[in-house]
Amino acid sequence: MLEAMSWRYVLFYIRLKAAYLSQDMKNAMSMVPESKRKSYLKTANELVDNMYEFDYYVRTPKIYESYVYYEKTLKSIDDLVALLA
């Protein structure tokens, strides 16, 4: 387990990565072909939703939910990268 003082840095790191990820997804949108835009938008919105839910549950004492949204966030990132490849 992390020390109580370390949680502040964990929360900051998650929010920072979410902000960068949001900007990167906007830039990647210009490279996505028109035929894949709807699926890209769906996957990107799912990723953002999972990141915000993960951020919320990390701030609560609900460890299981934090882990679930961590896994969902990783899966959404993998789906988005697969869509771009």
From TrEMBL:
It is found in: Plastid, Chloroplast thylakoid membrane. The keyword Glycoprotein does not apply. GO terms for biological process: photosynthetic electron transport chain. InterPro entries: PsbQ-like_dom_sf (IPR023222), PSII_PsbQ (IPR008797), PSII_PsbQ_pln (IPR054099). Keywords: Chloroplast, Membrane, Plastid, Thylakoid, Transit peptide. It comes from the Eukaryota. One of its GO terms (cellular component) is chloroplast thylakoid membrane. This is Uncharacterized protein. It comes from Nyssa sinensis.
